[in-house]
Amino acid sequence: MKRTESPFDDWEGREESDADGSAEDGAGADGATTGGDAMADGGAVGSPFEVVSQYEETRRDRYRKLFDAYVYAPISIIWRDWRARIGFTIVLAYVLMGTVGTVIVPPTEVVEGPALAQPFQHWEYPLGTDDMGRDLFAQTVHATQEMLKMITAGALFTVTMGTVVGAVAGYKGGMVDTVLSSITDICINIPGLPLVMVLVLLLPIGGNPYVIGIILCIAAWGGLARAIRSQVLTLRQESFVEASRAMGIPTRRIVFKEIVPHLMPFVVINLTNASRRVIFEAAALYYLGVLPFEDLNWGATLNLAQTGQAHVRPQALHWFLVPMVAIIFISIGLILLGQSLDRVFNPRVRARHEKTTSDAGDDAEEESTTNPDVMGGGL
Amino acid sequence: MATLDWRIRRIAQSVFTVWAVLTLSFALIRMMPGNPMGAMVAQLESQGVDPVRARQLVELRMSVDPTKPIPIAYVEYMGSMLQGDLGVSTYYAQPVAEILAQAMPWTLFVLSWSLFISFFIGISVGALMAYWEGGKLDVGMTSWAILMGSIPFYVMAILLLIFCSYRFGWFPTSGRAPTGVPAGVNWPYIKGIVHHAALPVMSMLVASGIASLGMRGNSIRVLGSDYLRVAHLRGLSDVTISTQYVARNAVLPMYTTLLISIGEMFGGSIVLEKVFQYQGLGYYLFSAFNQRDYPLMMGGFMVITVAVVIALLLADMTYGLVDPRAGGQHSETY
User: Fold this and answer.
1) pTM value?
2) Which residues of B touch A283 (CB under 8 A)?
3) Does A331 sit within 8 Å of B151, measured CB to CB?
């Protein structure tokens, strides 16, 4: 059976139950093991040969099944969940803001409007202006692109480092494990923010958002690596991994083609957590003035508002609020997305919510076939 | 025997981590671009200090001699660090160890209260949400938790500062203790300390949002498990089930989250104490960053690391007590 094991299979197979070929898979296996009995009884099950002939999978079927499992089913489940809908919409809005928005909205300049114009008063500057007359709406929009770059770099770095180091350490064991685990432990134990501040001070970063994103996550991948490692330790004992090893498949292929796909749910949920972390820390460092800035971004606007004494000037409150709302909203979007992904990937949570699609027997089977720890870790 | 081995290994690992951080600090001092030592010497010289004398002063303060071969300098640096000699702050002109020792208790005070209150709220709210899962209360509280979790603590801090201090004047705007009151165990002083710490503690409460979502998830996961069905079938009372089965099993993963937050909060204290001008560890560390006060910076960085390492070590050691299943070889808590 060349079918790749994946956490989706448990429920995906049931979802389209008998209408689809996936159910026959199980029947085929059944037939193969009980084939002898059936022949002796002369019963209706038929010989294993017949069963095999029943099940034909063309390449198109296979692609359709993969599409169903990895694209269609998750999206349809996500779309049924209000959190996911809101989360997706918010994140998409930010992406549009960072790509299309920067083209439509012209960048702001000093004395574009009056100083500290109030929000929702003028069409030219809908969110008001700062004390130099710069449009806060344009500032917010133009900050998005840089933030998205940071988020992408940081989240990808965290997830890649965490997964690769954790998976290799867990699978290889021995000396490799000791070395990688020690590095991981140091990263977990070193407090992130002070380290980032030292590094920002020492390294010639300039304003490259990708580098900033990676530096912000330099101490953050350790937790993920540790979690992945402990998962791999349990997975490497599984029969399908042992079978691959016996077949002489190279280690790299086993780790990244057989084991890591099992951990994808966990990884994807961590992607949203890492993104949130990048936003929070980047904005904090800009707000503190630790990171140098040329272009305005949410944290930098907070910094300017602080130095501009906006906290003691009641008419300047919106100067603080606009970047704050920008940070909070993308964070809400990411949390909602992470939560709904947790639901998509976690069959047990899903089973409780969609009792209509599965009866009690299925429910029990489902619970016994999933490893709850794989999904359990998302903070 | 196995548990003993594991503990010794864990302690050795912590010592190794601290050593690695010390080495890292040393390497960072060495690698600083633009050679800060040269810059400081030049600065002193421009103030009319004799070049030889300036070099000696700088070396004394940095506790690193640039002319010495690196291995010898490294051994000396490690030796003085182990003796608690963290050098002399260039900005405050005081031994770094002294500055940090008087700042540390304030940070611990604020952090321990923040941790305690936010986890207390997070766990109770999360358990309630799981109990009434799908109900109006659950939806409402989930929205509240998501909103809280989306607000960075420093944003909360700024908002609290704007409204509770500057607008309405309920709390002091900065500082850690009342001025003009003698320090010591007397009511006005204690009240003043609590008053000053209130806003920093309150701004860390946003952490309870994520904690309650985690607790809700754990509880729901536990609620769906087979042994609860068995417990129901056995006819155990709801009270027994909820306290002995659900609560116990759902709280355990939260312990891990708690451990990780200790480290994050220590790092976060830099931002928090900057916002409130609360003179704790983070405040001095930040001022060290701004003044390029390398000895103080390294000292603060190290103290935070050691504190986090010790906290995680203690927590790891006690995890076996909290969760009997985690004793022995497999007690990897994070």
Assistant:
1) 0.77
2) 152
3) yes
